[in-house]
Every structure is written in structure tokens, then in C-alpha cells.
């Protein structure tokens, strides 16, 4: 076992990934959810697609996920001196 944690992509409704894919060459774990939403983690446990996940929560999440994603985006924007450098805006 490399690491163990509850994935950020589980959301407030406990939507676990439907399947997983491992890329041993790039050392990336793919969590595959409904509607072809795929999120990546490194083999060290770092969530690579947090910005993408946040956008999905804003776009299609429930009220709790939407509000949490907006809160995170606000915090990131206020702490980032140059918002143009943000990956997902």
C-alpha cells in the first residue's frame, strides 16, 4: 500500500469512483466517476485535478459542493497575486 485516504472527489453525497485505472509508468491513479469524469492522483497521494474537480462542483454539484467550491475559489483568488496564473478560473 502506497497511501490511504478518503478521496477529495467523494463529495458530500458519498459518490465513490465507479472504477480505477493505474498508470504505472507515469505513476498516476485515475478515479473514474459517472458521466466520464476522471480525476488523477499521484502515487504519493497528491490530488492533481483539484481545480477541475472544483469547476465540476460549481457546474453540476449539489448546494453543499457548490458553496464549498466557491469558498475555495474565493480563498485561492484572494491569496494569489496574479489570478491569470491560476490553472482553472
- Annotation field: number of helices: 2
Strand segment tally: 3
Between the first and last Cα atoms, what is the distance in angstroms? 35 Å
How confident is the prediction overall: mean pLDDT?
A: 82
**What is the overall silhouette?**
globular
Content-based structural category? alpha+beta
Radius of gyration: 14 Å
Name the strands of the widest sheet in spatial order: 1-2-3
Low-confidence stretches: none
Report the order of strands and helices.
EEEHH
- Major sheet, described briefly? 3 strands, antiparallel
Q: Bin the strand percentage.
A: 15-25%
Written description of the protein model:
Helix content is 31%, strand content 17%. Strands 1-2-3 form a three-stranded antiparallel sheet. It is globular and about 35 Å long. With 89 residues, it is an alpha+beta fold. The protein contains two helices and three strands. The longest helix has 17 residues, at 63-79.
